[in-house]
Write a structure and sequence with these properties.
With about 290 residues, the chain is of the alpha+beta class. The protein folds into three domains: about 55 residues; about 70 residues, SH3 Domains (SH3 type barrels); about 100 residues, Porin, CATH 2.40.160. It has an eight-stranded antiparallel barrel with strand order 8-9-10-11-12-13-14-15. A five-stranded antiparallel beta sheet has the order 6-5-4-1-7, with no helix packed on it. Strands 2-3 form a two-stranded antiparallel sheet. A hairpin with an 8-residue loop joins strand 2 and strand 3. The radius of gyration is 42 Å and the shape is rod-shaped. The N terminus is likely disordered.
């Protein structure tokens, strides 16, 4: 009985000293963590005092009862969410630009085989992807120049920067070296080469050339972006009339790939490509 009374008195004394027993009129500001730590300290001190008191009253019993030790619980460490990387690999040398369109400034070349992290997308001017290179450079590349891995639906859509002043479409004026086959049966064999002066007025392209002992006249329509030509040509004697299609190389505007065909049947075609200012023959010569 004396032991219980003595223990109770000590607990009241400790609790009062720690400020845990306060008048009902006050409204204390409680620091939760500090309160927990103080409570643990009080419990540890009380346990020690009980053990000491028990030792004084009954030394034999005290040997069998060690003081309890209380510690502040440690909250579990939160688990970080795994990050998913979306990557782009260049399937050919591609221009990397400051914005998602071909008239934004050129920043650098995204070389064939290189990989970069995808950090954004935009489809205002066709599908473009913003990538971050290994050196930290960020730029935009068109989708037809890359292959993508990962869930592209998770890529954030970004607003395009202000569109710069449009760049005029390239024209076709100048002297071109042409390579042309004379047979639809073997379009990649028996190719001859000659030169011709191209003249573009507005969206109309005209030129003439001599081959196989005849003069041929070409008349075509240039697309708004200056990249393709659809046209027709006839021989001076009237013995030949056919069509032709040219596609300019976006990586080298001084080259085009093309074909000629007869009767509107583009599967029945011959090779027809060119290079400006003495440039090399495009490989392959015909469009894929």
């Amino acid at each position: 009985m004396k032991k219980a009374v003595l223990t109770g008195v000590m607990l009241v004394f400790l609790l009062s000293g720690c400020g845990l027993i306060q008048s009902q009129q006050s409204e204390p500001t409680v620091d939760i963590q500090a309160a927990i730590e103080q409570t643990m300290a009080v419990q540890n001190a009380a346990s020690t005092m009980v053990a000491q008191t028990l030792s004084a009253v009954n030394p034999q019993a005290a040997q069998n009862q060690a003081p309890a030790v209380y510690s502040t619980p440690i909250p579990p460490t939160p688990t970080a969410e795994p990050t998913v990387s979306i990557n782009a690999t260049a399937i050919k040398n591609a221009n990397c630009r400051s914005g998602p369109a071909s008239n934004f400034d050129f920043i650098g070349t995204f070389s064939q085989g290189a990989s970069a992290e995808v950090i954004g997308k935009n489809s205002e001017f066709g599908q473009w992807w913003k990538v971050r290179m290994a050196d930290g450079t960020e730029c935009w590349v068109t989708e037809d120049a890359i292959s993508l891995t990962g869930d592209t639906n998770s890529v954030m859509t970004m607003t395009s920067p202000k569109t710069p002043t449009p760049i005029p479409a390239p024209d076709w004026n100048g002297t071109w070296t042409l390579w042309m086959s004379g047979s639809t049966n073997q379009p990649d064999k028996d190719i001859i080469s000659f030169t011709s002066k191209f003249t573009q007025t507005g969206n109309v392209l005209t030129f003439a050339y001599k081959a196989w002992g005849e003069t041929f006249y070409f008349y075509g329509t240039v697309s708004a972006d200056g990249m393709t030509v659809n046209g027709s040509e006839t021989s001076e004697s009237g013995g030949y009339s056919g069509d032709a299609y040219f596609v300019r190389d976006p990586q080298n505007l001084n080259q085009f790939r093309g074909k000629w065909y007869v009767g509107g049947n583009r599967s029945w075609d011959g090779t027809y490509c060119g290079a400006k200012n003495g440039g090399a023959k495009p490989e392959p010569c015909r469009p894929q």
